[in-house]
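In the laboratory, one determines a bound structure by crystallizing the protein with its ligand and collecting diffraction data. In a computational setting the workflow is compressed into a single prediction: the sequence and the ligand go in, and a structural description comes out. We illustrate the idea with C2E.
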Amino acid sequence: VAKRRGSGFTVYDPSIDKSSQESLSLLSELRRALDRNEFLLYAQPKVELATGKVVGAEALVRWVHPEKGFIGPDNFIPFAETTGFIRMLTSWMLNRTAILCAELQKKGITLKFSVNLSTRDLLDQDLPTHFADILTRNQLSPSSMCLEITESAIMDDPIRAQLTLERLHGMGVELAIDDFGTGYSSLAYLKRLPVDELKIDKSFVMNMEHDADDAKIVKSTIDLGHNLGLRVVAEGLETLAVWHLLKQMGCDQAQGYYMSKPMPGDRFIEWLEQWKA
Ligand code: C2E
Ligand code: CA
Ligand code: CA
Ligand code: CA
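The predicted complex, in structure-token form:
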């Protein structure tokens, strides 16, 4: 299953049609990884640009494989999505994130935690009640969590996706459109779906300081989001100069390497204590 390509380690490459044997073994490795607790929850802070206050965090999964070591999500999430394993992983992420969110609340720190959903999750009729159970068990109000979805995840089966999203939103859970600007039919979905937050894709944000077109796209997206009554979050904030630009453009929040890379839960708590904008 493992291949070396450049310096990166690739577990799954959808462009290569692998034998069903290989897919089976990766699937069983993923299942075993859940049993053996090889997945880690990482968190990346989100700050309010006007004040520098940390207001939330995005939960991101990592896999520490016993032989292959540290594996990033881009190397197994696409495979997990094709097999349906993603539903188990999403459930694990929702549980772990709720536990971390509740732990922080007990320390008096209230942050909104975001978890990523995939296409399969949106087609899962049981997700809303399952998630409601997780929230209740951790004594969390639904609005303390946000679910991020991409436009392409919605496109797969828009009618069923909308139904799931309406049920989640009806419970009080917040919803965000992720990677905004990279998908298609963005505007029709923004208008129709019960969305609270719009996340501008990092590909537009990372170079906006040097690329005038990127800067214009970011500014227009911020205005569009605000005109629709949405909170606008920029991802990929890597420099102080971009912070100032985004703040000047009226962007609400941002996440990015300038503040911090994603960190394991315990380090995230330490980081919060020392953060000064
Ligand atoms: P995403 O949801 O768009 O997550 C943001 C990605 O951008 C993260 O990569 C994060 O580390 C990276 N990032 C944040 N700030 C910066 C920055 O300033 N510069 C640069 N260059 N990158 C930045 P990561 O953690 O490798 O995740 C990649 C993708 O994998 C995610 O993209 C998401 O689509 C998927 N993913 C990660 N965890 C999960 C999960 O639990 N469930 C699902 N369904 N997908 C996940
Ligand atoms: Ca995301
Ligand atoms: Ca994103
Ligand atoms: Ca992405």
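The chain has a mean pLDDT of 92. Keep in mind that any predicted model is a hypothesis to be tested, not a measurement.
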